[in-house]
Amino acid sequence: MKKIKTTYSPSFLTDYPTVDCENPDRIKFIHSGIKDVAEFIEPEPCTLSDLALCHSEELIETVSRRKEVFDTASLAAGGAIMAARIALVEPSFALVRPPGHHAGHDFNGGFCFFNNMAIALKDLLGHDMIENALIVDIDLHYGNGTYDIVRSDPRISFRNIDAHSRESFFSYLDEALKDAADYDILGCSLGFDTYIRDWGGLLNTGDYRRIGSSLASANPRFFSILEGGYYIADLGTNTRSFLKGVLEACS
Ligand SMILES: [Zn+2]
Predict the structure, then answer these.
(1) Helix (H, G, I), strand (E, B) or coil at 179
(2) What separation in Å is there between the alpha carbon of 143 and the centre of ligand 1?
(3) Which of 3, 26, 121, 184 is most buried, taking the most CB atoms under 10 A from its CB?
(4) Active-site residue among 102, 127, 141, 164?
(5) pTM, to two decimals
(6) How many C-beta atoms surround the C-beta of residue 147 within 10 A?
(7) What tens-digit pLDDT sequence spans the chain (251 residues)?
(8) Radius of gyration of the chain (CA)
């Protein structure tokens, strides 16, 4: 069976200082839950110039004072860059932490340090590998950091799904994807905190399969990056369900 190329490193299990809910078990459970659908590839950390594509010198300097955080966050951004490059050929997934969508040009927040999605897309744009990109953020929370970084860049469109019911989630998703095929790449900020047993209380495990399939059908040059998701016992099952949907769309 075809597998999804997934950027992952055991270094994401580093127990760097952060909030309790954003802990290494998130990655551990997903890693063991998706083994039959994922082909793991080890990324390299991103460079300082990659970080500077999206973040101020002051912010980079502040994070760099906390070595474990800086090293893991740079590796996460490197995993996102690698996944975005793979997506030019086939769908991919970045199984990384810390998440990134609440990190803006000169601020951090919400357990995020560097904006993995924005860095990955600015890297592709900077190397003339794409001319434009669409980001669809399906995390429970608004991707304020991503918006902050990309709002002044006409090459990148950012759409956030902010739904208060399962039905509205899918209708907003369809709306967000209606012209997705017109973009050179589609990136999804993938949060599982919308899950019925997580903070959002909206979606069930099978719904993630439908979402993965909708996204990868909308544009085959598709990648996703892990953002939130804190109901650890079912994170592996939900991620597997999402990746199965992606595989279905590209089979
Ligand atoms: Zn979230």
Answers:
(1) coil
(2) 8
(3) 121
(4) 102
(5) 0.98
(6) 17
(7) 799 999 999 999 999 888 888 899 999 999 999 999 999 999 999 999 999 999 999 999 999 999 999 999 999 999 999 999 999 999 999 999 999 999 999 999 889 999 999 999 999 999 999 999 999 999 999 999 999 999 999 999 999 999 999 999 999 999 999 999 999 999 999 999 999 999 999 999 999 999 999 999 999 999 999 999 999 999 999 999 999 999 999 87
(8) 16
